[in-house]
Amino acid sequence: MERKLNFQGHIEKTVWRIIWQFGLSIILAYLVPLVFLSIEIHSNSYSFNREVLNIFFNVFSWMYACTMLVIIISINLTKLLKIVKQDMDIVYHQSLWLNHNPRSWDIQIAEFSQTNRHIEAMQERIERMVQAEKKQKKDVLFKVSAMAHDLKTPLTVIQGNAELLQFSIQSNQNYQCLKDIEKASQQLDDYFNQLISYAKMSYTKPIYFSDYSVENLAKVIKDECAYLIGKTITYHLSEDLKEGYTVHVDMDLIIRSVDNIINNAISYGSKPNQEIRLYIVADARHLRIIIWNRGAGFSEEVLENFGSLFYKADSSRSHKNQHFGIGLAFVKQVMVLHAGYIQLQNINQGARVELAIPVYEKG
C-alpha cells in the first residue's frame, strides 16, 4: 500500500514540482532558442543578432518569466487544494453515516486519513452503544409488558368483586367506596393496555406500510373521530385537501394515534360544555391532523416532556386521569416511524395537538 504523505510533505512536493516545471519551461522556451542563435556583439555595428539579444534580455523577457512562474504556481496550488477538498469531502461524508465509506482509500493526506480512522472507530463505538441501548430497551419493555399482563389478572378480580358487591351493599358510603375502587381499577386497566400496546409496537408488532390517497385516509380519520366523540359533545369538522397526493403509512398505527388524542381530548375537556374541533389539511408537503378541545391546557412540563415514557406531570390536565405519558409517547413514536412530527400548543382557551405525515405525489 502506498505510503500517504502528510500535509507538510504535500507542500514540499508541490514546491519542488513548481521549481522543476519553472526550470524546465525556462530551458525549453527561453534558453534553447538562444543556443540556436548566433549572437555576435559588435561594438560599433547594429545587427540582427543584437536585436535578438535585446528581445531575450529586456523587460519583456522578465515579464514572460514572471508570468510563466505565476501560471505554474497557480496550477500546482489548484491541484493541491483539490486534493485537500477531496479528502475533506470524504471525511465529511464519513462523519454523516455509521457505514464505512469505500472512498476512504482515496484519501491522500495522512492527517485526513488519520482523522477518518478516528471517526470510523468512534462510529463503531456509537453503533455498538446504540445497539446495546436498543436491546436493553426491548428487554425492559418486554419485562414491563409481561408484568402488566400478570397484573391484569388480579385487577380483573378486583373489578369483578367491586361490581358484585355494589349490588349487595346498602350503605351509600360503602357503595361510593366500591365505585371509586371500580373507577381506579378501570384507570389501571387502561394504563396497562396502553403500556402493552406501546411495548408491542416497540419490539414485537410488525409495521405494515401501505399507500393511501390523502382523501381515503382523511375519510377513515373523520369516521373514527365521529364515532369516538359521539353526539353529546359539540364537534366541528373542517378539511382542506390538495388532490393528487398519497401517504405511506401503517393505517392501524395512525388510527390508534388519533384515538389516543381524541380520548385525551374527551377526558380533559371542560364539562359540561365540551367542544372538539378536527382540522384535516393537506398541502404539497404534509397531511396535518389538528385536534383542538376546549378545556385544560398543557403545562410547561408536559410541553417539554410529552414524548417521554412514564412521564407524569402534576398539572390540571393530568390529575384526574393518570396516563403517565404513555399515550403521547406512543403517538410521538408513531410519528417518528412515519418521518412526521407531533406538536402540542395551548391556544384559544384549550389544547391543540397537530400530527403531520409526509405526502407524496401519485406516481
State the distance separating the first and last CA atoms: 49 Å
As an assembly, this protein is single chain
* Mean of pLDDT: 77
Biggest sheet statistics: 5 strands, mixed
- Domain count: the total is 3
CATH architecture call of the largest domain: 2-Layer Sandwich
Q: Pick out the low-confidence regions.
A: 38-46, 314-324
- Would you give the CATH topology of the largest domain? Heat Shock Protein 90
Bin the strand percentage: 5-15%
Write the H/E string, N to C: HHHHHEHEEHEEHHEEE
Output the CATH homologous superfamily of the largest domain.
Histidine kinase-like ATPase, C-terminal domain
State the gist of this model:
It is found in: Membrane. The chain is α+β, with helices and mostly antiparallel strands and 363 residues long.
Could you characterize what this model shows?
It is an enzyme of class 2 (transferase). This is histidine kinase. It catalyses: ATP + protein L-histidine = ADP + protein N-phospho-L-histidine. Residues 146-361 form the Histidine kinase domain. The chain is an alpha+beta fold. It is elongated and about 125 Å long. The chain folds into three domains: 7-108, no CATH class; 132-202, Helix Hairpins; 210-361, Heat Shock Protein 90. The strands form two sheets. The protein has a five-stranded mixed beta sheet with strand order 2-4-5-7-6, covered by helices on one side. A three-stranded antiparallel beta sheet has the order 1-3-8. The protein starts with 6 loop residues before the first helix and ends with a strand. The chain contains nine helices and eight strands. Mean pLDDT is 77; it is low at 38-46 and 314-324.
